[in-house]
Specification:
The structure holds 2 protein chains of 2 kinds. By secondary structure, chain A is mainly α. Chain A has 16 helices and 4 strands. In chain B, the strands form 3 sheets. Chain B has a 6-stranded mixed β-sheet, sandwiched between helices. In chain B, strands 2-1-4-5 form a 4-stranded antiparallel β-sheet, with helices on one face. Chain B has a two-stranded antiparallel ribbon with strand order 7-8. Classes of the chains: A mainly alpha, B alpha/beta.
Chain lengths: 346, 251
C-alpha cells in the first residue's frame, strides 16, 4: 500500500503546480489587482505613497466587509439585494435612537443589530421555506426597506437625513472602535481596515477549515445532493443570510459613526457593487465556487479605481466604465481558468 | 441474511407499484435486482433505503421486522444507498465530497488533514487509484465517481450497499471498473444490492438474481439455478422478445 501511495503522490507532482494555482478562484482577481495597481501607480506618485494607500484602502474596507459576506452567500447559492439598503437601515436606527430617543450609542447599535439579524432571518426563512429565487425575495426586501428608510426618516424629521450623533452618549468610544484611525509608520489608516481584514480572515477560516464551510460549498454546488448526505441545507442558508445582515449592520454602524449623520437613501445601488466585487473575486453566479479572499481583492480593485481616477484628475464618471470593463474581464478570465483547470484530466 | 423481504408490496393511491416481492441480501453476497423500466425496481430500493414505507408483507433486518420512516433510519442500521445522480457535488474536491455531512472534527475545526489522509487511504483500500484527492469530483469519470461514492458508503460503516443503476450511464470499460468495486465491496463482507437492467452486468458479479416485471416478482434465482441466457430471456420477457423478433422479421 505504501508503494501505491508513493505512486499516487508522484502523479500529483506531475499533474503540475500550474493547474493547482489556476484552480484557485481568486487567481483572476489577483492578476487584476496587480494590473490595476501598476496602471495607477505608474502615473500617480500620490497613489503609491502611504497616504495614497491609506486613502484607497478606506473604501475598499467597507466594501470588502460586505463583499466577503455576499461572497459566502453566493457560494451558498443565493443572492441578497437588500444588503446595501440594510446598511442604511442600521445606520438610521443607530442615529435616530441615539439622537431622538436618548439611547446611548451602544444600546442603539444593539437594537440595530437585532433588527438586522431579524431581517436576515426573514430573508433566509422565506427563501428556504418557499424555494423562491432569493433574487426575487430580497428584491422585495430591498424595495420595502428603501421605502421604510425614507418614509420613517421623513415622518420623524421632515427631512431625508438624521444627524447629530456626535452629541450622543458613548459616541467617542464607539467611534474609536469602529470609525477611528490607527497610525502605521506615521500614516493614519482607518480602523475599518482592521475590521475588514478580520472579517476576511474569519470568513476564509470558516470556508476552508470548518464543517459549515464544507456545507456552504455543498448547498451552493448541489443542494439536493447535500441534503441527501445529511447537510442541514436550510440552516446553512439562513445562517448565510444572517451573516450578510450582520455585515450590513457593521458597515452601517461604521459609516454612521464616521459621518455622524445618515442620508435616508444611502446604500441604494451598493448591492450590485458587492456582487460585482464577489464575482471579480472568483464567485460563480450559479453558486458552489468562490473565495472570501477573492472578494476582498475585488474590493481593493474597486477602492484603487475609485480613488485612482480622482488622483489622475479624470472625471469620476469614468469609474462606472471601468467597473463594467473590470466585471466583464474578470468573468471571462474566471471562465477560461476554470475551463482549463477542469479540462486537464488524467 | 442481513435484509429479507417476504411478500412485500406498496401502493400509491390506486397504483400498485410493487406487490408480493420476496428477496434476501446476505453478507458477502451480491443480490442483483433486474427489471425493465417500470418493473418496480426503484420502488423496491426506496423501501429498502427508507424513502418509502411498505404497506404489505414483512421487511426484516437482522431477522427483526422493521419499517423505516426515513433514509437516516436505514443508514443507522447500516443500509447505505448510492444513487446514480445524487452521488457527488462536481465542483468540490474528492475529499470534501467524501466527508460531506460527516466531517471529522478537531476542536471546532474540520480536521482537513485527517479527511484528506483517510479519503486517500479508503480509496486505495478499495483499489481506486485517484491521482489527487484535491481534484474536483467533476473532473473524474462517471465510473470513478460511482467508485468514490461506494468507498464513502463502505467507510461510513455500511453493511448493505444499495447501488441504483451504477453502470447504466457508463461505457463498457467504465462499467467494468464499477463492477470490480462491487466485487471488492462484497469481498470486504458487505451485502450488495445491485440494481440494473443489464443482465450482462449482473451475471458476472451476482450470487442471487431477483427478476421484476410490472411490479411483481418473476422469482429469485441462485446463480446455480440460472444461466446467463435464461436470465436474459426472462429479463426481456422471453415470449415478448420472440414475438417482437417475429414482428420485425423481413418479409
Amino acid at each position: 500500500m505504501t508503494a501505491a501511495a508513493g505512486r499516487a503522490d508522484e502523479r500529483v507532482a506531475r499533474a503540475g503546480l500550474v493547474r493547482r494555482l489556476l484552480i484557485r478562484p481568486e487567481l483572476g482577481a489577483v492578476v487584476g489587482l496587480v494590473a490595476v495597481f501598476a496602471f495607477f501607480a505608474a502615473q500617480s506618485p500620490v497613489f503609491r505613497s502611504p497616504q495614497g494607500v491609506a486613502n484607497w484602502l478606506d473604501p475598499a474596507a467597507t466594501l470588502g466587509i460586505m463583499a466577503v459576506a455576499i461572497a459566502l452567500l453566493m457560494i451558498g447559492g443565493e443572492f441578497d439585494l437588500s444588503a446595501g439598503v440594510l446598511t442604511g437601515t442600521t445606520g438610521l436606527i443607530l442615529v435616530t435612537l441615539a439622537t431622538r430617543y436618548g439611547l446611548d450609542v451602544w444600546t442603539a447599535m444593539l437594537v440595530g443589530l437585532v433588527v438586522a439579524l431579524a431581517i436576515g432571518l426573514a430573508n433566509g426563512l422565506i427563501v428556504t421555506r418557499t424555494r423562491l429565487p432569493s433574487f426575487i425575495v430580497t428584491l422585495g426586501t430591498f424595495l420595502m426597506l428603501q421605502g421604510v428608510n425614507l418614509g420613517v426618516t421623513k415622518a420623524l424629521t421632515g427631512t431625508v437625513q438624521v444627524s447629530g450623533l456626535r452629541r450622543a452618549a458613548g459616541y467617542e468610544d464607539a467611534r474609536a472602535l469602529l470609525a477611528g484611525t490607527v497610525e502605521i509608520g506615521g500614516t493614519p489608516f482607518r480602523v475599518a481596515i482592521l475590521w475588514w481584514l478580520l472579517v476576511t480572515a474569519v470568513a476564509t477560516w470558516v470556508l476552508m477549515r470548518s464543517r459549515p464551510g464544507n456545507w456552504i460549498f455543498a448547498v451552493g454546488g448541489n443542494e439536493q445532493a447535500a441534503r441527501a448526505v445529511g447537510v442541514p441545507a436550510a440552516r446553512t442558508k439562513i445562517a448565510l443570510f444572517m451573516t450578510t445582515a450582520f455585515a450590513a449592520w457593521l458597515v452601517g454602524s461604521i459609516l454612521a459613526l464616521r459621518y455622524t449623520s445618515v442620508q435616508a437613501n444611502i446604500g441604494i445601488g451598493q448591492e450590485f457593487i458587492y456582487i460585482i466585487a464577489a464575482v471579480i473575486g472568483g464567485c460563480l453566479l450559479t453558486g458552489g465556487y468562490g473565495s472570501a479572499i477573492g472578494a476582498s481583492v475585488g474590493a481593493v480593485i474597486f477602492g484603487m479605481a475609485d480613488k485612482g481616477i480622482v488622483f489622475l484628475g479624470w472625471d469620476a464618471d469614468w469609474f462606472k466604465f471601468f467597473l463594467g470593463a473590470m466585471l466583464l474581464l474578470a468573468t471571462l478570465a474566471n471562465r477560461l481558468v476554470r475551463r482549463y483547470a477542469e479540462e486537464v484530466k488524467h | 441474511m442481513i435484509i429479507e423481504t417476504r411478500g412485500i408490496g406498496k401502493t400509491f393511491g390506486s397504483v400498485l407499484a410493487l406487490r408480493d416481492v420476496s428477496m434476501g441480501v446476505a453478507a458477502g453476497e451480491v443480490t442483483c435486482v433486474l427489471g425493465d423500466n417500470g418493473a418496480g425496481k426503484s420502488t423496491l430500493i426506496k423501501i429498502l433505503s427508507g424513502v418509502h414505507r411498505h404497506d404489505a408483507g414483512t421487511f426484516l433486518v437482522d431477522g427483526r421486522e422493521v419499517s423505516f420512516g426515513s433514509p437516516r433510519e436505514a443508514l443507522d442500521r447500516g443500509i447505505a444507498t448510492v444513487y446514480q445522480d445524487l452521488a457527488m457535488i462536481p465542483l468540490m474536491s474528492v475529499w470534501r465530497n467524501f466527508f460531506l455531512g460527516s466531517e471529522p472534527r478537531r476542536g471546532p475545526a474540520f480536521d482537513v488533514a485527517r479527511a484528506r489522509r483517510i479519503a486517500r487511504e479508503e480509496l486505495l483500500a478499495m483499489g481506486i487509484d485517484i491521482r489527487d484527492v484535491d481534484q474536483p469530483v467533476g473532473t473524474l469519470s462517471g465510473g470513478e465517481r460511482q467508485s468514490v461514492a461506494i468507498a464513502r458508503a463502505v467507510h461510513f460503516g455500511a453493511r448493505v450497499l444499495i447501488l441504483d443503476e451504477p453502470t447504466s450511464a457508463l461505457g463498457v470499460k467504465q462499467a467494468g471498473v464499477v463492477l470490480r468495486y462491487i466485487v471488492r465491496a462484497r469481498d470486504r463482507g458487505l451485502g450488495v444490492v445491485f440494481i440494473t437492467h443489464n443482465p450482462h452486468h449482473a451475471y458476472p458479479v451476482g450470487d442471487r438474481f431477483l427478476l421484476l416485471n410490472r411490479g411483481t416478482s418473476l422469482g429469485e434465482y441462485g446463480k446455480a439455478d440460472i444461466t446467463r441466457e435464461e436470465l436474459t430471456a426472462l429479463m426481456a420477457g422471453g415470449a415478448e422478445l420472440a414475438e417482437l423478433e417475429h414482428e420485425l422479421r423481413r418479409e
